[in-house]
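Fold it.
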Amino acid sequence: MASSDRIVLDYIYRRSAETGEVQEPITAISLATGFSTATVWRALNRLEEKGAIKIEKSDDQQKAQRIIPLNRSDETNKVFDYWLTQSEDLVKLSHEILKGFQVLREANQELQARLEAYQRVEERVLSAIPFGEGYEIVIRRTSDTPTTPNEAAVAQALAQALTFQHQKVTDNKAETDNE
């Protein structure tokens, strides 16, 4: 059975649960299922040929035709209802997962932009420091308050960055001297 047939049949089963039939224009079924009216029309014809539904056409063009689902046992109803419930839960979970991915993507983009801005400032600051041989990096506090773990981490990161920049300058100077 084609996926359009299954979806249209699913719609007919759900809509006919209370009255035992569906009396809607093809355009309404088309809007509800997301298929074109031609696809819905072909699906209805195939389903009628297979004996899954019966279509009672109306003589009045303004009146919708009656679509009656056939061969639906109680066991089929239970399985179908369970499938519908589980499918609805899956759709909800899929939407939640998609929203989560969108939030993560936005956060990642924001962090990437911050990292790039930081790297530009870091490069500008470090390249402005005139390093040469014989320099020692010393970081001193100007306050008598105890050092927080965050301050110690920042000082250590700054010392590493400055040491790296110093090594870069030293390497560049060595390459220039060797040429």
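The chain has three domains: 3-72, 74-128, 131-179.
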